[in-house]
Amino acid sequence: MLLAATAITLIATPSLAQNAGDGFLFHPPPTTWTFRAGIVYPTANSDVFKFVTDQLTLDRTDFSSATFGTSFAIRTSTRNDVVVDVGYSNVKHGSEFRDWVDQNDRPIEQTTTLRRIPITLGLRHYVTSRGRAIGQFAWIPARRALYVAASAGMMHYKFHQAGDFIDFSTLNVFYDEFHSEAWTPVAHAAAGLDLALGNFTKLNTEARYTWARAEMSADFVGFNRIDLSGLSMTAGLTFSLF
Question: pTM value?
Answer without folding.
Answer: 0.84
